[in-house]
């Protein structure tokens, strides 16, 4: 059985986290986001590869435009036609969502939960696709206006 490439898993988790929080209550501007993989199982992964990645933060910066900040986060998640949003709640500074995506390896389930303010967020996510599982966390904060 094939598994998702590690780069696709990490990019997918990071990409889902940022747009999921691009709600009207989030302030446009320059943001920095740090994603840390807490655990992962992937059959066939070379020995030591997981240890080389686990707990190593990946930090990115991005400019959130006013249009992106006003976008409906549920619609952003639902834009990928291979995915179905199973649950989405974002209110009162809390976010809780679950979605199922169809991949060449079969269905992948992704859950996210966390907190947000206008200038920061913190979220935990889990992903399961066949025998592969991953748990990660992301935190982000607004730095100021876009450069």
TrEMBL record:
Signal sequence annotation: 1-22
InterPro entries per record: DUF3617
Keywords: Signal
Source organism, top-level taxon: Bacteria
Name of protein: DUF3617 family protein
Organism of provenance: Polymorphobacter multimanifer
Taxonomic lineage from the root: Bacteria, Pseudomonadati, Pseudomonadota, Alphaproteobacteria, Sphingomonadales
